[in-house]
């Protein structure tokens, strides 16, 4: 598609003035990406993957996870897990029942601002204590330690299956004194301060645990992906391709690599289609010039991009008659979940969107045209995210092209993937344009709900078995 010529009826706003329509067309041209453009980005992505496998200190960190095993699905036993995403913290007991089945006992805690900026590890330890006490599972002084898998979804330099130093914070966390330190030690020290007999058997990213949760029930699982607060992916790599790996070669000959793909195109701002709205977000973020890909794709940022667009339109008096509100003026006021509800609002008066504009954002008296434009903004931002997410996916799928000649499962977790309407369909459809049909039919995209938690239990089991 040549997006400059054929914007299509979808972006025509009934009742809009010429100036409003022109502004919407500008947005559509910025946010619609041709396959040709995506193809170029995929090539650059692949180049960055190769660089990251070859040496340290590259844009894509391609972190060796020390996970060199695959579960058979027949393992049994109870294991514990902590899943730290960017929005929620979950503590759970994962009971592996064999036959690829696992059951979950879990408790969810919202990360308070204080934990995000100061007390993170003490907060996690307190949540573990609450969970164990609430379920009468706190080990007595004479009991053995409980083994935990720790899903820590921030880039670390992994130094063993249960140690790794933080490279930098992402996704809005900013806890001082952690960069360069072993996050497992930080957590175990906090647990010790509460007198809890708990050991961290493994630390993994949410992508690695999502992959392993799928692998427990599905031997075809090769790739784990997250589209939640942030985005990342992990896959089984042949160690001979992991040139920077200095350790002993694992018996299996393979290792899961956490790509840290959210960092794609950081610093250089060269390849991705940055609009002024992206640049405004980036400049005001906690990590300017970092995580460029993540900022166009994931839940933490999409609402904010849309808010920037809404203000850009309002400031030209092309939306809401130029009015704003204290709420709408504040950064992060528009949660990405509102884009999901706006994108599927098909009611005659767009009442869900009216609710968001008038109640959530506190700007009264929206017109139907305002709401129609708002809906297009939500669609443009969400669909660009879905199309761009196919870039990383295609680059990863074609990295080991021989894998595509038999059934292969991509396990995906995260609220953006689960809830943004059509995200899964658009992502898969876009990917299909870059992979031959005979191979594409072998690929199964599977929602691994709770995968980032269950997989941490699976990895705790594997690490304990192999220690
Ligand atoms: P985590 O990243 O902590 O594992 P999630 O996978 O639940 O957590 O992702 C949380 C992110 O998803 C938040 O940034 C939130 O804004 C976004 N989100 C939550 N609900 C929706 C929704 N319905 N549609 C799109 N994004 C959503
Ligand atoms: Mg998660």
From TrEMBL:
<protein>
    <submittedName>
        <fullName>Uncharacterized protein</fullName>
    </submittedName>
</protein>
């Amino acid at each position: 598609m040549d997006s400059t010529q054929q914007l299509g009826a979808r972006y025509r706003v009934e009742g809009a003035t010429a100036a409003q329509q022109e502004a919407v067309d500008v947005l559509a041209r910025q946010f619609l990406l041709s396959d040709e453009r995506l193809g170029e980005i995929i090539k650059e992505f692949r180049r960055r993957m190769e660089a990251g496998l070859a040496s340290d200190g590259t844009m894509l960190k391609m972190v060796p996870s020390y996970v060199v095993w695959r579960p058979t699905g027949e393992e049994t036993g109870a294991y514990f897990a902590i899943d730290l995403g960017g929005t929620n913290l979950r503590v759970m007991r994962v009971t592996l029942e064999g036959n690829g089945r696992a059951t979950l006992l879990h408790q969810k805690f919202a990360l308070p601002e204080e934990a995000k900026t100061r007390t993170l590890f003490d907060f996690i330890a307190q949540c573990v204590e609450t969970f164990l006490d609430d379920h009468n599972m706190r080990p007595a002084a004479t009991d053995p330690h409980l083994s935990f898998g720790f899903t820590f979804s921030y880039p670390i330099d992994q130094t063993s299956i249960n140690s790794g130093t933080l490279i930098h914070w992402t996704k809005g966390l900013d806890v001082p004194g952690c960069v360069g330190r072993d996050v497992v030690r930080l957590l175990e020290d906090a647990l010790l301060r509460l007198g809890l007999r708990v050991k961290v058997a493994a630390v993994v990213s949410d992508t690695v645990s999502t992959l392993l949760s799928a692998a427990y029930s599905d031997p075809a699982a090769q790739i784990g992906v997250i589209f939640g607060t942030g985005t990342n992916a992990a896959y089984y790599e042949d160690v001979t391709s992991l040139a920077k790996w200095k350790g002993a070669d694992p018996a299996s000959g393979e290792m899961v690599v956490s790509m840290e793909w959210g960092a794609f195109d950081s610093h250089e701002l060269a390849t991705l289609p940055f609009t002024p709205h992206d640049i405004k977000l980036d400049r005001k973020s906690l990590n300017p010039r970092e995580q460029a890909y993540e900022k166009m794709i994931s839940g933490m940022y999409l609402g904010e991009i849309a808010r920037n667009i809404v203000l850009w339109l309002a400031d030209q008096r092309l939306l809401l008659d130029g009015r704003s509100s204290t709420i709408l003026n504040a950064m992060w006021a528009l949660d990405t979940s509102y884009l999901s509800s706006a994108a599927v609002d098909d009611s005659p008066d767009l009442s869900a969107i009216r609710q968001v504009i008038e109640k959530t954002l506190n700007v009264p008296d929206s017109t139907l045209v305002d709401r129609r434009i708002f809906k297009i903004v939500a669609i443009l931002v969400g669909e660009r995210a879905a199309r761009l997410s196919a870039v990383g996916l295609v680059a990863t799928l074609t990295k080991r092209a021989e894998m595509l000649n038999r059934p292969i499962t991509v396990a995906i977790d995260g609220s953006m993937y689960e809830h943004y309407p059509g995200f899964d369909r658009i992502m898969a459809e876009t990917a299909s344009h870059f992979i031959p049909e005979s191979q594409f039919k072998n690929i199964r995209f599977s929602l691994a709900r709770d995968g980032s938690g269950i997989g941490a239990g699976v990895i705790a089991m594997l690490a304990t078995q192999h220690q």
